[in-house]
């Protein structure tokens, strides 16, 4: 099977067919997804196809997920390895993290958005690591002229995460957010980023890192909500050989690997009080004690944390330590949700159409004015992540490169129609108050046409029937009022 060059491939290994299909549905808009029910089928698939990421269930017939991923590490070292299992297997997973080179551990029951974000981050990490390895190799082996060129490439790579690359409209509320973040980036202060899920908190954290004196260091990410305490402690602080069954060699934690750089702790509000104590000690002392180690190891990192929780409220409720809160909240930055910066929807949507269109092999995809108006009228409770998924769906089902409103989901269309209907029925200010009688009637007629078309997903037959018009008559009115269809 030939894979599109621009579509990363993912292999799901799980002996439960329903679980396979659930993961396929979650991932297949962004990735070429293969499935296998056991290790033998997975080996055959990997021999025939270039696999970017493998998602493997821990409990399988014959081999455990960790043992199979150890084999994958040896035979296909460039494939990013993710294991999926329950809390009951956490000790086995901890023991196999270093041995199998596991990138991430996802707990059951997994959440679709988290699974999708984890795989996206895995592919991004793989691409960045390949670029970094290639550039560092060029630096070590090149002539002075080539080294200068390679340094320029590294600078260009860092510019990808510049504050100016955070998509927004002129005068957006994000301007003030980015201005504050840019000012504090130069100082070695901890930063707490607050905001709803999907608002782009990690993107802002990356921009802070690359605008700081630590830009040449590593930027490492950990989702604190995705792991139990024991696994999170080992992942962040590391462990020593022999610390527990299966710990065959030393495993440096993310704090050690980020020495001189930045650690981004996502969803820090989900951590347990017991883990908060251990994290506070690390931040206070500037050193970590790997599991099983006799002595602490000094680390020099900047911590940027993020959460969708109200941490001050959780402090008052006794769910989050007050001393840790003040330690991580040296500077607090709040990213507003998309519904509070509706002007940003258009530029973000256009950029997502370009990016997702390229990923799906539809580089000429674009949004019609009517589709864009619908997107701008929806409140987006899932923020940019939901907007991205909506655009991917619309591109996939659209027959034309120009995405019409009909290609949007009923959720978005009904949300838009609901806003228009509510405005017309409950707010007199939504109706025209100036102009001639004819002009006012035209405005009301256009509003009714638009609301009806949106509610019927631009089905002209149903809309014409409801309005008592022929299809020809409806088309004439749509042309008159500039409504696409």
TrEMBL record:
<keyword id="KW-0238">DNA-binding</keyword>
<dbReference type="InterPro" id="IPR001789">
    <property type="entry name" value="Sig_transdc_resp-reg_receiver"/>
</dbReference>
<feature type="domain" description="Sigma-54 factor interaction">
    <location>
        <begin position="174"/>
        <end position="396"/>
    </location>
</feature>
<dbReference type="InterPro" id="IPR025662">
    <property type="entry name" value="Sigma_54_int_dom_ATP-bd_1"/>
</dbReference>
<protein>
    <submittedName>
        <fullName>Sigma-54-dependent Fis family transcriptional regulator</fullName>
    </submittedName>
</protein>
<dbReference type="InterPro" id="IPR002078">
    <property type="entry name" value="Sigma_54_int"/>
</dbReference>
<keyword id="KW-0597">Phosphoprotein</keyword>
<dbReference type="InterPro" id="IPR011006">
    <property type="entry name" value="CheY-like_superfamily"/>
</dbReference>
<dbReference type="InterPro" id="IPR025943">
    <property type="entry name" value="Sigma_54_int_dom_ATP-bd_2"/>
</dbReference>
<dbReference type="Pfam" id="PF02954">
    <property type="entry name" value="HTH_8"/>
</dbReference>
<keyword id="KW-0804">Transcription</keyword>
<dbReference type="GO" id="GO:0005524">
    <property type="term" value="F:ATP binding"/>
</dbReference>
<dbReference type="InterPro" id="IPR009057">
    <property type="entry name" value="Homeodomain-like_sf"/>
</dbReference>
<dbReference type="InterPro" id="IPR025944">
    <property type="entry name" value="Sigma_54_int_dom_CS"/>
</dbReference>
<dbReference type="GO" id="GO:0000160">
    <property type="term" value="P:phosphorelay signal transduction system"/>
</dbReference>
<keyword id="KW-0547">Nucleotide-binding</keyword>
<dbReference type="InterPro" id="IPR027417">
    <property type="entry name" value="P-loop_NTPase"/>
</dbReference>
<dbReference type="Pfam" id="PF00072">
    <property type="entry name" value="Response_reg"/>
</dbReference>
<feature type="modified residue" description="4-aspartylphosphate">
    <location>
        <position position="57"/>
    </location>
</feature>
<dbReference type="Pfam" id="PF00158">
    <property type="entry name" value="Sigma54_activat"/>
</dbReference>
<dbReference type="InterPro" id="IPR003593">
    <property type="entry name" value="AAA+_ATPase"/>
</dbReference>
<feature type="domain" description="Response regulatory">
    <location>
        <begin position="9"/>
        <end position="123"/>
    </location>
</feature>
<dbReference type="GO" id="GO:0006355">
    <property type="term" value="P:regulation of DNA-templated transcription"/>
</dbReference>
<keyword id="KW-0067">ATP-binding</keyword>
<dbReference type="GO" id="GO:0043565">
    <property type="term" value="F:sequence-specific DNA binding"/>
</dbReference>
<dbReference type="InterPro" id="IPR058031">
    <property type="entry name" value="AAA_lid_NorR"/>
</dbReference>
<dbReference type="Pfam" id="PF25601">
    <property type="entry name" value="AAA_lid_14"/>
</dbReference>
<dbReference type="InterPro" id="IPR002197">
    <property type="entry name" value="HTH_Fis"/>
</dbReference>
<keyword id="KW-0805">Transcription regulation</keyword>
């Amino acid at each position: 099977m030939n894979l599109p060059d621009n579509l990363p491939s993912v292999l799901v290994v799980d002996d439960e067919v329903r679980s396979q299909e659930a993961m396929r549905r979650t991932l297949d808009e962004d990735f070429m997804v293969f499935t296998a029910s056991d290790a033998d089928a997975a080996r055959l698939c990997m021999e025939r196809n270039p696999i970017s990421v493998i998602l493997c269930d821990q409990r399988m017939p014959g081999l455990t997920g960790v043992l199979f991923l150890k084999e994958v590490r040896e035979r296909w070292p460039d494939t990013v390895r993710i294991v999926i299992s329950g809390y009951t297997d956490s000790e086995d997973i901890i023991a196999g993290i270093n041995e199998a080179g596991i990138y991430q551990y996802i707990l059951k029951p997994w959440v679709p958005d988290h699974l999708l974000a984890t795989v996206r981050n895995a592919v991004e990490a793989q691409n960045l690591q390949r670029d970094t390895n290639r550039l560092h190799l060029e630096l070590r082996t090149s002539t002075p002229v080539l080294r200068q060129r390679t340094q320029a490439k590294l600078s260009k790579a860092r510019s990808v995460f510049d504050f100016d690359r955070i998509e927004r409209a002129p005068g957006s509320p994000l301007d003030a957010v980015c201005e504050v973040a840019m000012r504090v980036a130069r100082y070695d202060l901890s930063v707490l980023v607050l905001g709803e899920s999907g608002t782009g908190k990690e993107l802002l954290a990356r921009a802070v890192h690359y605008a700081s004196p630590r830009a040449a260091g590593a930027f490492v990410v950990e989702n604190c909500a995705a792991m139990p305490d024991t696994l999170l402690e080992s992942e962040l602080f590391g462990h020593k050989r022999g610390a527990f069954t299966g710990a065959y060699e030393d495993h440096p934690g993310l704090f050690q690997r980020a020495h001189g750089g930045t650690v981004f702790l996502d969803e820090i509000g989900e951590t347990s009080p017991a883990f908060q104590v251990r994290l506070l000690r690390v931040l206070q002392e500037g050193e970590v004690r790997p599991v099983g180690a006799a002595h602490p190891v000094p680390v020099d990192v900047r911590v940027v944390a993020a959460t969708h929780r109200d941490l001050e409220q959780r402090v008052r409720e006794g769910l989050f330590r007050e001393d840790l809160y003040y330690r991580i909240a040296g500077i607090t930055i709040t990213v507003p949700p998309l519904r509070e910066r509706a002007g940003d929807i258009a530029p973000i949507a256009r950029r997502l159409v370009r990016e997702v269109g390229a990923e799906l092999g539809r580089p000429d995809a674009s949004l019609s004015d009517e589709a864009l108006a619908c997107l701008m009228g929806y409140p987006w409770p899932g923020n940019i992540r939901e907007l991205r998924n909506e655009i991917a769906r619309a591109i996939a089902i659209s027959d034309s490169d120009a995405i019409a409103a009909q290609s949007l989901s009923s959720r978005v269309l009904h949300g838009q129609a609901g806003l228009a209907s509510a405005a017309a029925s409950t707010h007199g200010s939504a109706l025209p108050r100036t102009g001639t009688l004819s002009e006012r009637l035209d405005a009301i007629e256009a509003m009714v046409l638009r609301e009806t078309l949106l509610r019927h997903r631009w089905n002209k037959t149903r809309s014409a029937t409801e309005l008592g018009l022929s299809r020809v008559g409806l088309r004439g009115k749509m042309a008159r009022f500039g409504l696409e269809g």
